[in-house]
Every structure is written in C-alpha cells, then in structure tokens.
C-alpha cells in the first residue's frame, strides 16, 4: 500500500515539475521573442526629428544668395534662399530649425555620421552623390558663371582665354567637375569656401572663380573690384536638392511635400528674389 501511494505521489510530482519546466520554457521564449521584436523596432529619422522637436540642417554659409552670414539688428545670422526653404520644412514638421555651418566638402560625411538631419546647401544631386545619400526633388535650377577681377574682365571672351590661368572652384562642388571637364588647359584650384576663393581672387592667387551665376553676381555687386564675365557655361545642370541619409524615404516624402507646396504657391521665386536683394544690400 505504502509503495503504491509513493509511486502515485511520485508520478504526480513529476507531472507538476514537467509542467512547470515547460511553462517556464514557453514564457522564456515568449519574453525573448517579445524582446527581439521590440529591439527590432527602430524609430525612423522623421520620428526622431519630431520627438526631438528640432530639425538640424547642415549648410555652408558662404554661398549668397543661397546661404550666407548677415548682420541683422547687430547679430550675426545665417540667412538666404536655402534657409527660407529649411524654415518651411521645419514648420511643416512642427519643429524648430537649427543651422550648422561647415565646409561644403564635409556636409555629406556629417549627414551620414548623424551629426545633421538634412543638407540644404545649393547641392546638386549628382550620380556620384546619389551613391551615398538620397535626395529630394529638385527645388531650383540656375546658371554657372565666371567671376574675375574687374580690371581683367575685358581679357576673357571664351573659356579658351583661361589657358594657363589659375581657376578657383569650391572643393567638392559642381563647379569643380565642370572645371575639370571644360577648363582642361587651366590650373584648377579647389578651395573649401567661396569666400576664401574671393579673397584669393582679390589677392591674385587665382585668376578667376567658377561659381553659380547668382552667387558670382552677388559678390560682384558687393565688391567693385570684381566682375562677372559674359562667358556662357554650357552644362547639363540638374538643379539643387535636399540631401537625406539613405533609408529615410518618409523624410524625403515629407520634404517633397513642402517643396511641392512652395512651388505651387510661387514661393521659390519669391524667396530667391528676397535672398538676392538681401545679399546685395
């Protein structure tokens, strides 16, 4: 009798333990799976921006009228055409705008490192750049021109007249590529910023600066010793767009909505005209 009862209770105990073990294993898997699921849920860049309450825009503020420094009410501020667009993007996202000023050739590295959210800097969406970042729709197209010293303006009638001359370009910008392709008999001098290029032009370290036509005109209007040549630069120009780190299509789509609205309302032309006037005064 005792042996039978012992066997009975032993069997019950084994069943209970087995149930507990399997229940424990099942819960462990469930917790583990839930943890993995939660771990795989990564917040999108768009959500990160909205959560932080600010949009960090990288630019190179030496490129009037797109982006440049201006003293307003005794305070140095970064203003310009691109900045107006950046403000609209931030407004549509419901966040504040923060501007980070840096060298043009460091912008994409900063973007991919997560130091900035987007790039607005008169940047052309070239095929080479598209390998590392995504772009919004083009929001502006413009011409290229050649800035020279006013005293030398009459010397240059064609690109061929720059044979053996030093032509400055902004390092990493569209103009560097144009110069390499079209000014093959010139000495190309890449420099980090347009403002530095202008200083080199004034000090005769370079003979000319290849630059966006509107930007060149803004510098010429501000500096009577400089002038824009009448030489036309023929180039398949794709326009300028907003750069975004790859894998953030929702952010690109949101930016495109803002660009579409600005185009529809005629604000692109308005902002460019206002920025040009501000750069000239």
Automatic annotation (TrEMBL):
Q: Which SMART domains match?
A: PBPb (SM00062)
Q: Which domain of life is it from?
A: Bacteria
* Region forming the signal peptide: 1-23
Q: Which InterPro entries match?
A: Solute-binding_3/MltF_N (IPR001638)
Outline the extent of the Solute-binding protein family 3/N-terminal domain: 54-275
SUPFAM superfamilies in UniProt: Periplasmic binding protein-like II
Q: Keyword set for this entry? A: Signal
Give one Pfam hit by family name.
SBP_bac_3
Q: Which PANTHER family match?
A: ARGININE-BINDING EXTRACELLULAR PROTEIN ARTP, MEMBRANE-BOUND LYTIC MUREIN TRANSGLYCOSYLASE F
Output this protein's name: Polar amino acid transport system substrate-binding protein
Source organism: Fonticella tunisiensis
